[in-house]
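Expect chain and fold; thus:
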Amino acid sequence: GIAPDYEGSSDYEPVPVLAGDAKFDNGMYVKLLGLNLRANLIPSKFWRLGPVYNYRAERDNVENNRVDRMRDVSDANELGFWGGIGWEGCFLLFDVLADTGNAHEGWTAKLAGGYNWRMSEKFVFSMGAFTTYADDDYMSTYFGVDRRDAARSGLDRYDADGGMKDVGLDLGVNWGFAPNWDLR
């Protein structure tokens, strides 16, 4: 996959995306996608609810020279819960995550929805949309420029308030080319 050099960067770099899951017949599962690990603890084919862990990489030694002169932001280990419903290809999901250390000391809440269309036995087309809300602490850490950072970087001071952090669209095709192996 590709990922920004840091939260908010316009410089992207290729990254490996690890993925895997363990599914049970009753609908429960554990799933890893990139740096996000979640478990569905509800024995249901429709409802989902469980814990979620997310790792957010540090911001240091970045491509942008001005941002690189700002204070480093340590990596974040975020814990929370997630839930949702899936029915006949449609899904609606939410998650709430909070920093467990002192990287950003804030929280985010994400809402996502979409549709998975099974085109054939081997191909699934996915489309969806999402939005994320982030609190003042999160936004100040990743998007704010305080007096010291402004002096070091030459950027203007900026007070980033909590609010909608992002809105996006997801489009993808999943190819099940072999038993238990997919390419997305």
User: Anything to note?
Assistant: Residues 131 and 144 are 20 Å apart (CA to CA). The mean pLDDT is 94. The chain has three helices and twelve strands.
